[in-house]
Structures are given as C-alpha cells and as structure tokens.
Amino acid sequence: MAGAVVRHYLTTCFMDSETTKCKISYALHSHTRSLPLFHNKYETRRVVALMNGCEGDPKLPIGSIETRTLTAVPSPSKAMERLDVAIRDLKCNTPPLTSGILRLQVPIEEQIEAIEWLHAQHDNLPRCFFSGRRSRANGNGSNLLMDIGNGNGDTSFTHNLVGAAGVGSAVFFQQLHPFSYHDWRSIKRFLSAKCPLIRAYGAIRFDATANISPEWKAFGSFYFMVPQVEFDELEGSSMLAITIAWDNALSWTWDEAIHSLETTMQQIASVVVKLKKEASGEPILSKTHVPNKTHWDLAVKKALQEINTSSSQLVKVVLARSSRILTATNIDPIASLACLQVEGEDAYQFCLQPPNGPAFVGNTPERLFHRKWLSISSEALAATRARGESSDLDLQLEHDLLSSPKDHLEFTVVRENIQNKLESVCDRVVVEPKKTVRKLPRIQHLYAQLTGNLRREDDEFEILSSLHPTPAVCGLPKEAARLFISETEMFDRGMYAGPVGWFGGGESEFAVGIRSALVEKVS
C-alpha cells in the first residue's frame, strides 16, 4: 500500500524579564489540517550526475553570465517549441569559454500560475517554488522582481514577478558543513545583477551543528538550485526559461550540460491544467507527536526552571513539537501548497525538493530579509491572537494584543534584536511602523518593519548569518537558546524555522521556514 508521511510542528516560547514571566503558545501549522491528499503521478525518483557549485573556487569568476530574451509567444507549448529550436542551435555553437551560465527566456502573452505549471511536471526531478506575499497589507507587500532585463542592461520588458517554479538543476549548491562565506561566494559566482532572473532557490538548516536525521539527509546542511527549466508567473503574462551552466574545472562541460538539459526537456509538459484548490477528505491512518504529552510537559518544566535560575543566561527559548501523520494515499505536495495559497495571500509560499528527497513545503508570513542592491529590510513579527468572528470581536482582540504588557515584552525583544543586527552592518536603520498589528486570515501579530542600507554587498552574508535564527523561532541569547533546544528537543528540525528563499545578482529575499511540512512517500 502506498501512502505518505507528513511532518509538521508546533512551537511554544518561554521568556523572562526582571519583572515579567510569560508563556505564549501557538500553532505554526494551522493550515495542515486542510492539506489535500492525492496520488502522486510518478512513483520513482532517480539520481542524475550534476554540478555542485560549492566544489569550485569562488575566487575564480565564471567566464560568462548571460540572459537572452527571445520573441514572445501566445502559449507554453509555443514557448517549448521556441526553446527546443534554441537548444539545437546551441549544440552547433559550442562557446570557447571553459565556464559560464546562460539563460534563454521566452515571454508568454498570458498569465499562467507558476504552481499550476509545476503541478503538471514530473515529480522525479529536483524542483522548487517560491512566491512573494501577494497583498500589500500594512503597506508591506512583496514583489520578487521589478525589472526583467535581457542581460545587457535593457529592461524594456518590465513586469512584477508573482512566483517562480523550477525543475531540474543547472547547478546546485550543497554541503554537510554549516553554510559559510565560501559557500555564499560560490553561489554568487554564478549570479549577476545584469541577469536578475538567474537565481539560486533553496534553504538552510535551523541548526547546522546538529546531526542530520534520515528524513532531512537529501538536503544536507543547505541546498540551493538554479533550475534548468523555470516558469515565471508575472503580472499579466508569464515566461518559460532554460538555463545551462558549465565549468570544466568541476568536470561538467558544455556538452554534458546541454545533454542534461535535453533529458530534462523531454520530461517537461507544456499543457497546464487549472488546479482545484480544495481540500480532499482522504483518511489519516495515524498521527504521532514527538515529544508526546508527558515528555513535552517535562521539556516545558525544564525550560522554565532554566530561565528562573539566577545563574542562567537564558531569557527566552522557543521549543517545537513534531507531528508525524501517515495517510492512506500519497500526498501531492504541490496540490497541497496550491490549496494553502487560497488563504495565504499575505504569506510566502515555497517548495523545495532535492533529488531523491522529500518535499519541504510551507506558507509562512515571516520575512527574514529582503535586499535590493544595498537597500535591506526586515521585520519583527511576534505575539499572537486569533482573528475575531465579528468585526467588533476582531477589534477587541487587536486592542488586547496592543495593550498587553506580556506581548509587548515579547515583541520588543524581537524588534530590538533585529535592529541591533542591522545596525552592525548598516549606516542607518529606520523602524517604521514601530508597533502595529498585522492581520492574517486566522491570526494576528504585533509587527514592525525595519529598513537600512548595507555598507557593502558582502554584508549580505553577515546579515543572513546574524539574523538567523530569530528570537521568534529560537530564543535569547541566541547561542544559549540554540544549545538548550539541541539538548532538549527529541527530533531534528532540519530546514524547519530556517531561512528559505533565493539569492540573485542584485537582489535576494528570504523568509523564515515556519508553518511548513516535510512530505515524503512511503511504500
């Protein structure tokens, strides 16, 4: 009997100050009860030899980084035909350079949802999906891209990018050691501000020092991929693109890259069917929590005792619980994610699935940071109330959230921590609004936006390393909380609560991988 395993999590935070102790508990995965269950279309996954960009020398520049925009077409099938012809031409024109990355993109004169295109593709290829927050609630909406150029500075084709989906990897980046500056430079080596849509999508573990459990093994300590075939959903149109990356020094030649792309293209479906974004009612065979109720209560007691110990540095710690759900049939993670989009307009949606691995999917409202050139923004999001069933009740809950000393303390700790981290690498940091309420479909949080200007582009790695993990998913001080979590929790968080997003040449964006699940097939 085929089935699927879904792992998702609950977190509880405990904190202390000189005068106040508080306990706040909330579900980070309130959506998982509505996950639709589907049979996956394909049952096998296979390993393909590909290029790991982390094995190269980040100090050596790539020979060529280029984007070419072809003539617009009316449909995905016409775009496939155009790209097939382009690949045949490329086979006859081997470049003289020993390394490079080339993107060919075909605009499509129709807006098609990227997640629907991804759902039509084989699930035996590595794949990724990322969409920005679609609404502009609180003046804080997110667009993935403003200017789409052709690689030589021409940005006449300008649209907002709604979401991006990719299959296959032109180049991937993965190691078992913690994500380092060397790894960041290895990724940036393949990117250029002149080619803004050549991006590396991926995620980083919550705690790279912890042992990797079997279910997270395929991800390593981090996993990023530049898709071989990518579908970009734009406002009012779409785009289908292919990317070829090669580096003779990594034993991955132009000919090998072209052959790998051809193999992937043979599996690409050009017919996209509208998805029914509705939950189905397939039965759940079993549900297991780690830790169970007894061990959870012990962990809570241990956390409070540690915080109350006068010699302890620990001020706040955020514990998690893993839920393992076994279903009778396979779960389609892409259909599940599409279902979450219906009620997650003010959230990031993501999916990351490495070769022969499970799918990490989520619907998170929390931005870690967004960088465009040297401008950077982050958010403080903390403290929680439910949404009211009526407007009056909703306003009452909002007022309670804004006036609660306990919630104000939790929120202020998060906001000041992020502000201090930004000030270490920025010339000036602005906090506006300093405190307001951000309303999501089911819950509402205290919220602040922080913006600044990095002193240099390399500070992007520093801000990623310092902001993660945030006090909202780890605690304070960060290292003391991380150690307590490592010693107390009985499971591997993996990429849960870690950074998930993308690096680009002049722009990058990362969310916090909460309200998420790991979906894998079982036989």
Question: Can you describe this structure?
Answer:
- The protein has two domains: 260 residues, 4-Layer Sandwich (Anthranilate synthase); 188 residues, Anthranilate synthase (4-Layer Sandwich).
- The N and C termini lie close together (6 Å).
- The longest helix is centred in the last third of the chain and has 19 residues.
- Strand 3, helix 1 and strand 4 form a beta-alpha-beta unit.
- It contains ten helices and 22 strands.
- The chain is globular and about 70 Å long.
- Helix 1 packs antiparallel against helix 4.
- It has 523 residues and is of the alpha+beta class.
Would you spell out the secondary-structure blueprint of this structure?
Elements lengths: L2 E14 L4 E6 L38 E5 L6 H16 L7 E10 L5 H6 L7 E5 L29 E15 L5 H8 L11 E5 L17 E13 L2 E11 L6 H12 L18 E7 L2 H16 L7 E12 L5 H11 L4 E6 L5 E6 L2 E6 L2 E12 L4 H13 L1 H19 L2 E6 L4 E4 L3 E12 L4 H9 L7 E2 L1 H11 L10 E5 L3 E6 L3 E7 L1
Parallel strand pairs: 3-4
Antiparallel strand pairs: 1-2, 1-11, 1-22, 4-9, 5-6, 5-12, 6-8, 7-8, 7-20, 8-9, 10-11, 11-19, 12-13, 13-22, 14-15, 14-21, 15-18, 16-18, 17-18, 20-21
Helix pairs in contact: 1-4
